[in-house]
Amino acid sequence: EVQLLESGGGLVQPGGSLRLSCAVSGFTFSSYAMSWVRQAPGKGLEWVSAISGSGGSTYYTDSVKGRFTISRDNSKNTLYLQMNSLRAEDTAVYYCAKDVWFEELSGAFDIWGQGTMVTVSS
Amino acid sequence: EIVLTQSPATLSLSPGERATLSCRASQSVSGYLAWYQQKPGQAPRLLIYDASNRATGIPARFSGSGSGTDFTLTISSLEPEDFAVYYCQQRRNWPPFTFGGGTKVEIK
Question: What pLDDT shows up at residue B17?
């Protein structure tokens, strides 16, 4: 069974840091691009960042560039999101999501984790 | 950045009725549009990719159509489990991949 399991969320003060993890099982992790998508409370979905299967290419939405870093450890089947200089507007549920197609960063997401909540507040 | 506008914001229908949801893009996304369903407290689920292709395991009552800037998700006959929020998403011009604001399908 394909599974994505996020962890690492919590309460952090403005300006603080968190590292989210997404543990993957049930498919060949290194063959698929992955993304992080977030959802602020009561709001819609917002794509945050993506990484190719090899980890060699990364992409970000403008509002997190320079503050967030996506990475992956294919030996551990784990995706990460390092979040620094956190702001109140980063408060959201963060989902990791698997790309649909083999060895292509396509931007269609067929498998999602259950999400981890990040709250930025003093 | 491509902006996706979904309408209506809320659709009030009864089980068994047909649901028609709209998604309009600020510029052409060709056929690179997906639809997701999200229920309260759950992660989104991919329904349709590339405008008209049903994802694995999605019932045939869900269908997608359109190209360019105008797209439609149709649910031919609403089942009780279909009452949820639906999002469209484009992958034509990125980054960023962008989502619409969502349409809530509620029980009338």
Answer: 98
